[in-house]
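Feature request disguised as a bug: please show the residue count (217) next to Protein tipE in the output. Example input:
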Amino acid sequence: MSKESLTLINIAETAKFYTSLCLGTTAFLSVFAFLFLIPFVVDPAITSLLAHYDPVPVTCVATTHVYVEGISNCSWSSCREGCTKEATRCHQIYVNYTKLPYKLLKDDERISSWDVVETKFLINTEGCGYPPSVNCTQFAKQYGYGTAGTYFPCYYSRVHPDMVVARYSWDDTLRHLVLSLAIPNLLFVVSVGLLSYWYCPGCGRSCQKYMHHFPEE
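Example output, currently without the count:
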């Protein structure tokens, strides 16, 4: 065997080693990424889809805003920065809503009857999130404090009519769910498949055996 052939073999073996290392690392990280995404993306997205929110924002008005401190007082929160820790300070906002679409509300129109009154108002289905997308101080200023009597758009659940949120998009929710399920699993399958083909002694022979069943052109 010539020196050039040996050099090419060494280069190929080195490339295969580093490629295998990258594939193994990718498979390992994809598993942890998927486990990480389950509580933060997958579960909230599935819960939002199952809640079957009306995609057309309806009309809400804040009736009560309470700011409390202490774990015992924060049995629920309209907005919480962080979904894995107990809230020690929280904003609790209650609203009334009517199924009248917000975009159909006329200027200076006053609503006298509401479909649901004094129900809890959440920033999203989970009532929590992480900065910068979730800023509870800004949320409280926008929907609480001195905004009582001001109408604003909100989304109610057709399955649980007393569930009202400030943010919802069916397209975004579905896209986040599909991406969080597809990307880590696809990377894992491709990485493990290539590694199995290269290093599993029986995989290559099995593939060749099945190839014999196809007629040659």
